[in-house]
Backbone:
């Protein structure tokens, strides 16, 4: 069998071997399936209540979603299997390319014969009279970043050099980066969690509601909303900014505190608390009542919290807010209740005492026109002037132990792409045949990208050899003598 036939057969064998787990076609197929799956996971809301899916998509569609695990797609067995297959494909592909990388970095890789070998009698050869041209050639090559390695074969001296072989690492960096991203995603999916917690202003919690879980999850420490503030655009209900002052408590001691805003979360023990929403709890911090006796001499305003009795300064009266309802209504038995947490019809049940005698116990209202106004009994008038609602801050709780791996993977992918774009591997060969009056020299080069640049560099090296004080003349001139 000829050498050409043997080389062809060897190449075909390599193609067949690379058609398995490490094939490019399998990688493209896996990438396509992952992209389609991720798109489905984006279009179909994840982690919702089954009743919501049934209401939106119907009962039959809900069964299909459950069967294919599309309501929790990114944690499904088949999606994780695709990620594992992609990781195995990248490892196999990198392993198959190791021999070529090893050859490129080998100490003897730089003196392999170029394709087509050498022909020092060709028209592109040059003749150098100096019998000790090797030192000058090494200097010229070194100035261009090449380090020549020599091999002597009888009357022929052959040298080779490689520059930029590190650019071959680009694909390995990209593969390693993708593997780190996949591993980080897997670690986050298995050991990470996401959830939500609403903390009323001034209160403390030690757990949160995890996504797709019914039971609350403990944090291992406590977090308190010390203060909450929201500002709105003038004349609108659109929030301009809202912030929460959070305090982390552990074993009764304050560990850290921070005022968080949107995109400026608090992080403690790797758990991130992000500002997500806010609202009203339906409760109040205090209620402002106005009081006036029958003579009209005691027109006073007093600010009191619900449930506590306060004396009216300078009088015998005591005021107490027994109950507060943000959206007052009566049921079919005329029992007061609140229809919602919204302050649509705020009302306070007030008790006025004089000494030990109850003068007045009634509901006073803040907004409803039909009920708004003072209540009067026993010569005492009382009405609701103002109230201070209790707000809550809604926090997104997240823990992702694999996020560092993901960021590291993205950095490696970026470095690999830059290395592939900017790094160019160049190989140069020089062969010289000893003649009576000097050396017949031929140069060859190979560049993975930009062959025109290599031609320019070869021409420059020839020129340096010919004009470098070595008494060089062109091969064509020497033969024309």
Residues:
């Amino acid at each position: 069998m000829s050498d050409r036939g043997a080389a062809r057969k060897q190449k075909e064998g390599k193609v067949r071997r690379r058609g398995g787990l490490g094939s490019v076609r399998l990688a493209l197929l896996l990438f396509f399936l992952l992209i389609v799956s991720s798109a489905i996971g984006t279009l179909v809301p994840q982690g919702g209540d089954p009743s919501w899916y049934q209401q939106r998509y119907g009962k039959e569609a809900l069964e299909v979603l459950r069967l294919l695990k599309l309501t929790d797609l990114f944690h499904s067995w088949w999606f994780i299997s695709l990620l594992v297959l992609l990781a195995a494909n990248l490892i196999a592909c990198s392993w198959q390319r190791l021999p070529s990388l090893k050859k490129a970095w080998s100490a003897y890789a730089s003196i392999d014969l170029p394709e087509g070998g050498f022909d020092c009698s060709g028209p592109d050869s040059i003749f150098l009279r100096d019998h000790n041209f090797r030192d000058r050639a090494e200097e010229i090559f070194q100035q261009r970043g090449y380090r020549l390695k020599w091999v002597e074969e009888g009357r022929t001296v052959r040298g080779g050099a490689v520059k930029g072989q590190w650019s071959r690492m680009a694909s390995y960096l990209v593969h390693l980066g993708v593997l780190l991203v996949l591993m980080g995603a897997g670690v986050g999916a298995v050991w990470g969690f996401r959830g939500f917690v609403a903390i009323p202003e001034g209160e403390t919690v030690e757990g949160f509601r995890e996504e797709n879980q019914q039971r609350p999850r403990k944090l291992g420490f406590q977090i308190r909303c010390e203060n909450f503030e929201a500002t709105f655009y003038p004349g609108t209900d659109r929030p301009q900014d809202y912030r929460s002052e959070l305090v982390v408590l552990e074993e009764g001691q304050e560990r850290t505190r921070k005022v968080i805003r949107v995109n400026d979360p608090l992080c403690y023990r790797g758990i991130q608390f992000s500002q997500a929403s806010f609202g009203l709890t339906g409760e109040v911090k205090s209620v402002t009542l106005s009081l006036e006796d029958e003579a009209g001499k005691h027109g006073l305003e007093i600010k009191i919290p619900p449930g506590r009795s306060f004396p009216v300064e300078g009088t015998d009266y005591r005021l107490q807010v027994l109950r507060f309802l943000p959206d007052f209504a009566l049921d079919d038995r005329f029992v007061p209740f609140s229809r919602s947490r919204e302050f649509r019809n705020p009302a306070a049940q007030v008790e006025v005492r004089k000494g030990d005698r109850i003068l007045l116990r009634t509901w006073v209202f803040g907004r409803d026109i039909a009920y708004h106004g003072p209540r009067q009994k026993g010569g005492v008038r009382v009405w609701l002037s103002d109230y201070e609602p209790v707000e809550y801050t809604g926090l997104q709780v997240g823990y992702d132990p694999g996020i560092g791996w993901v960021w590291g993977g993205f950095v490696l992918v970026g470095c690999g792409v830059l290395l592939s774009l900017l790094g160019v591997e160049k190989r140069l060969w020089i062969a010289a045949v000893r003649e009576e009056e000097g050396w017949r020299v031929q140069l060859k080069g190979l560049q993975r990208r930009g062959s025109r640049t290599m031609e320019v560099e070869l021409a420059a090296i020839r020129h340096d050899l010919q004009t470098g004080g070595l008494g060089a003349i062109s091969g064509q001139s020497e033969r024309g003598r």
